[in-house]
Specification:
It is built from six helices and five strands. The chain is an alpha/beta fold. Helix 3 links the parallel strand 1 and strand 2.
C-alpha cells in the first residue's frame, strides 16, 4: 500500500469527534468492556469489515501490509471482520501478516453494531447493511468499491 494511502487512514482515524448520537444500552462502560474483551490497549479503534469475504481478501492484505510498514506510527487498534468465505490459505496468509499487538481478527459477529459504534473509523467494502449501520452510528468511514458485482447489492 502506498504510504500516502496509509497516511489518509491515519489522518481520518485521528481527526475530530464523532457526531453525538444516543444509542441505548451502549455507554462508556460497555466501550471499556468491549476494548478489554478484544485485548485492545489504545484509545482508538479501526474496524475493517469486508462483508461476505470472498472479494475482500486483497483489501485486508493491503491494510495489514500498510500497518507493518508504519507499525511505529500506529496509534489505534484494529478489529478485522473477515467474513465466512476466505479460504484456509487466505486465512493463513493474513495470520502471518497480522501484528498481534495491534490487530484482532474475527470471522463473524452476529451483531456488529457495538463494534461499529465503538470504531473511530470503519473501513468497509460498503455493502448495503454495513453502509446503513455506518450512517446510523454516524461513524467515520472509508468505503472501498467492490471490483466485482455482488447480486445482493
Amino acid at each position: 500500500m502506498d504510504s500516502k494511502i496509509l497516511n489518509n487512514f491515519l489522518s481520518i482515524a485521528g481527526q475530530g469527534q464523532k457526531m453525538p448520537i444516543e444509542i441505548p444500552d451502549f455507554g462508556r462502560e460497555d466501550l471499556a468492556r468491549l476494548f478489554a474483551e478484544l485485548g485492545f490497549k489504545k484509545e482508538k479503534m479501526v474496524l475493517l469489515t469486508i462483508g461476505g469475504g470472498d472479494d475482500g481478501f486483497e483489501t485486508i492484505k493491503v491494510f495489514l501490509q500498510a500497518l507493518q510498514q508504519k507499525s511505529k506510527e500506529i496509534f489505534f487498534d484494529t478489529l478485522i471482520i473477515t467474513g465466512p468465505f476466505l479460504t484456509p490459505e487466505q486465512k493463513n496468509e493474513l495470520e502471518q501478516l497480522k501484528l498481534p499487538a495491534l490487530v484482532q481478527t474475527k470471522e463473524f459477529f452476529e451483531d456488529l453494531s457495538p463494534y461499529m459504534q465503538a470504531a473511530d473509523l470503519v473501513v468497509s467494502m460498503g455493502g448495503y447493511n454495513t453502509f446503513s449501520e455506518i450512517l446510523t452510528y454516524a461513524s467515520k468511514a472509508l468505503l472501498i468499491h467492490r471490483i466485482t458485482h455482488r447480486k445482493e447489492q
